[in-house]
Design goal:
The chain is mainly β and about 120 residues long. It is built from no helices and eleven strands. The strands form two sheets. Strands 2, 4, 5, 6, 9, 10 and 11 form a seven-stranded mixed sheet that branches. Strands 1-3-8-7 form a four-stranded antiparallel sheet, with no helix packed on it.
Amino acid sequence: QVQLVESGGGSVQAGGSLKLSCAASKYTGVFYRMGWFRQAPGKEREAVAAIRSDGSTSVADSVKGRFTISRDGAEATVYLQMNSLKPEDTAMYYCALRHGFGGDWSAPGIYNYWGQGTQVTVSS
């Protein structure tokens, strides 16, 4: 069974950086999309960024210019480099994977697999 394992969360002061990683074990698909979502207490899950296996990326306006999504070309592994972090970036960050390229990248419902999440806390 496919499992997504996230790592790299933690606590940082405003203006700092963190890099999240997500590896999809036992996944052998060629065409897929991997995305990062976040959810703060009392708020809906929000799309952050996504990348397809062909390298095409999508990034939410709220993090554009500060967050960068990338992948390991040989493995179903995705990274989220987060710079210039703000207190409002505080949330549980989740990795997700979808078979194929179809659908709206920002819609949680299109993804087939989810990780357990990693906490990111930004203090002012």
